[in-house]
């Protein structure tokens, strides 16, 4: 490489090459330099915001050096790369993560302290990067951390939303959405104004035969929007590998203004054009597990996919390899169906732009893509109307029709005369209007399809995709159970627990090989260890209690059992079951004598999560939780025995405070509806037990940690269909305890009952689709078992230690290794550890 540059120049470059700082003094020097030059401030007006900015810039500089080296190393190694396409990356904060991953947090802590700051205050200045809704987006973020930590050559591709998921405020018990403008100061991104892609929309297709008699299609006309790359460094833990996340931002192709229009006096419309272009990457759609079929969303998808593929293909073409080698060099993973258009776009590039034959191109395409499914809920399966498609992406629609034709022909050959099968599996649904079924397109265009937990992967094979298993055979479908990064979700969120584990397992090695946690089993009955373990949990609860006090004004007792349910608000996740259970507890307490009350374990029920802005039932659930809290928290009969808290604006950085503070957390979806869940893993890894249904990854968590260490309840997935049928066509009598809860609500005990009519009505009168009444008794009984178990603190602590010791399987590193081996066929790129990594253990 170096030979490309003349020797005398090379020497000058090498002499002044950036060297990553490692000492406290060098860190301070960098901070002061950034304050005084980059920020043009001085020690007299350096507030916490400025200190955050300078500390981040100091770490950013360090990351850039390794980031450049990593990209060079990966380019010259010329091995296979992974591209993870996700419309969502729920990254949270970057500074704390960067400090820990490069092993210099203590250095920074001391340095900041000498400059007059507390590191926690500085970390808290950072705005979350909240470019995601929930589990799917956070999974993508955990995967980036694991891919870098394991030294895989891997990039994330996404959209640079100007507004992330909205900020939630609670006003009079109601959710109010406030825009999340997060880019006023973001030191972690690098605009690449030289890396742009022009993306076409609308227009029409002209077809003709060229001189060799070959059919040619030209997509012409329409409009162009420019994609500009913004790069974000992704540092691995205790490795120099620093990968790249590339996010695309949209702007008008003609630059700031259309000068022609401007000069001809059409100033307003030239500004309008610019704004229309910028609208594409303006805002993250705030729906989780719901597809609303909006044109702007399809525009976002194509904009992002087209820019990313152009970039990937451009990089491949530099290698001058034959097209047939494309799948040997490139694996592209589709995070749900949102990037499915990438399949069509690559086929279009290969046949329309590069002149390959259909079959040759299609073989390349299908060997390149893998598709991960995250849901079986029918309302979340993406479909796009054919007329909308025809208008926005006319050439892509033609290619989809061709893909479908060849696919259906192959089905017809395999199952001659089975017309029902053809109708069932067609990528085009023959409805009014016709619809493109994106999941089917993703299956047909990929070589592997995976679900995200065993039960979920079984369900997709036996229900929504069962015809495709018959058509393609069972090997195309597989399972990769989700995981979480122990760096953020243990080391960063729960430093004291991480330290204790390190002290007993020989250092921080467990963070890279989570099965090392197994060594904790031998301390499950160790008195000293248990004491320390319990102290850490208590301290984490004190911290959360303070946070609750400062944000809600409610005082909670840190010795009470903390019962937490934080996740997006959704009927299938059944926060309503939880709050009805809380009301039942309230009724029980009210009916108790003073003597009986003394025996009850005090409990704090903590909720958090956002409702999609248009999801009325979810908003009603939030309203009910808040109103119940308002009544219960000031009832003198109840006192400390029960508090009900709704934490506003649940997000990644708040999860880092909340997760380590649970005694029990709730993962209580209707069996068969939660694909995996990942917060269940986070809570257990932090020494909390869980109450849950036999759903998603709860089942595998039970298998790993043992049935004695989890509180399972409720109906099984296999019985759900029959129960629903009985509700609708048989007799449906509600659980008597639930009836009492409804009676209390209807007595206006929690404000005007009219506000909650739709919620109670969905269970009483509209079939109770999510089986709240069916599971209520089992839930209440199991919560009573939790109360009993909690009274025996000694046994409880042993359970939590054993659980943590057995959670190794749920590291996202295990998960990424499975993807690499079963789906991507890629290997890590070894690194020398010569670099200036901190040595913090
Ligand atoms: O993906 C979640 C699943 O519900 C959860 O069980 C799983 O653990 C997690 C990771 O595999 N799905 C999810 O978060 N989905 C979305 O956020 C989402 C967002 C947008 C749309 C659909 C789903 N959409 O159609 O626009």
Describe the fold and architecture:
By secondary structure, the chain is an alpha/beta fold. The model has no long low-confidence stretch (mean pLDDT 96). The two termini are 36 Å apart. Helices cover 48% and strands 15% of the residues. Helix 12 (341-353) runs antiparallel to helix 13 and helix 23 (575-591) crosses helix 30 (736-746). It has a 9-stranded mixed sheet, with helices on both faces. It has a 6-stranded parallel sheet with strand order 21-20-19-22-23-24, with helices on both faces. It folds into 3 domains: 18-77 and 98-126, no CATH class; 78-93 and 128-479, Glycogen Phosphorylase B (Rossmann fold); 486-810, Glycogen Phosphorylase B (Rossmann fold). The longest helix is centred in the N-terminal third of the chain and has 30 residues, at 48-77. It is globular and about 95 Å long. The structure holds ligand NBY. The site of ligand NBY has 22 residues, from helix 7.
Short summary:
With 841 residues, the chain is of the alpha/beta class. It has 34 helices and 24 strands.
Q: What fraction, in percent, of the residue positions are helical?
A: 40-55%
Can you identify the CATH superfamily of the largest domain?
Glycogen Phosphorylase B
What is the third-level CATH name, the topology of the largest domain?
Rossmann fold
CATH architecture term of the largest domain: 3-Layer(aba) Sandwich
| N/C terminus separation | 36 Å
Mean pLDDT across all amino acids: 96
The CATH class assignment of the largest domain is Alpha Beta
The global form is globular
Biggest pleated-sheet summary = 9 strands, mixed
Helix count from the secondary structure assignment: 34
Protein structure class: alpha/beta
- How are the strands of the largest sheet arranged? 7-10-11-4-1-12-13-17-18
**Which molecules are bound besides the chains?**
ligand NBY
Strand segment count: 24
How large is the radius of gyration? 28 Å
- Report the portion of residues in β strands: 15-25%
Q: Which blocks of ≥5 consecutive residues have pLDDT under 50? A: none
Total separate domains: 3
